[in-house]
Amino acid sequence: MITGTCHCGAVSVEVPRKPRRLTSCNCSICRRYGTLWAYYKASDVRVNCARGATHGYSWGDKSLRFVRCRNCGCIMVWEATHPRASSRMGVNARNFEPAAIEGIRVRHLDGASTWKFLD
C-alpha cells in the first residue's frame, strides 16, 4: 500500500502498489496543475478525508472531475463523472513521498494536440 497526502494532510489517497509508469501530460489543465499521473482501477483507489474536505472541478465535456483539497488546494485525483465498473482513476503521484516513485518511468503525453506519447 502506498499513501499520498495533500500539503495540509486533510486528504490522503491510498493505492495498492507502486505505479508501473507515470504520465506527464501537457494538456491545458494538467500543465497548469503540474501533475504527474499514476493510473489505477477506480475500485483500487481510496480517498480518505472528512466530509466536505474536497472540491471537484470539471470542464469541457465534463467526463472527468479533478478533485483537490479544499483547504490547501493540492490536486489529488481525477475521476470519471459517470463511473462504470471498469473505470480508471488518475492519482497525482506528486502527493507521494519521492522515494515511493523513484526510478519509475515517466511518459510524456501530448494531451494538448495529438493525444500520443512524445517519447
Task: Provide structural commentary.
The chain is mainly β. The chain has a domain at 2-20 and 37-98: Metal Binding Protein, Guanine Nucleotide Exchange Factor, Chain A, CATH 2.170.150.70. Helices cover 7% and strands 39% of the residues. A hairpin with a 6-residue loop joins strand 6 (54-57) and strand 7. The chain is globular, with a radius of gyration of 14 Å.
What is the CATH first-level class name of the domain at 2-20 and 37-98? Mainly Beta
Helix/strand order: EEEHEEEEEEHE
If classified by CATH, what would the architecture of the domain at 2-20 and 37-98 be? Beta Complex
Class derived from helix and strand content = mainly beta
The Rg value, from CA coordinates, equals 14 Å
Shape: globular
Bin the helical content: under 10%
Cα distance spanning the termini: 29 Å
Query: Which strand order spans the largest sheet, edge to edge or round the barrel?
Result: 4-9-8-7-6
Q: Mean of the pLDDT scores?
A: 97
Number of strands: 10
**With helices defined by DSSP (H or I, 4 residues minimum), what is the helix count?**
2
Largest sheet report: 5 strands, antiparallel
What's the CATH topology label of the domain at 2-20 and 37-98?
Answer: Metal Binding Protein, Guanine Nucleotide Exchange Factor, Chain A
Strand percentage lies at: 35-45%
Instruction: Return residue spans where pLDDT drops below 50 for at least 5 consecutive residues.
Output: none
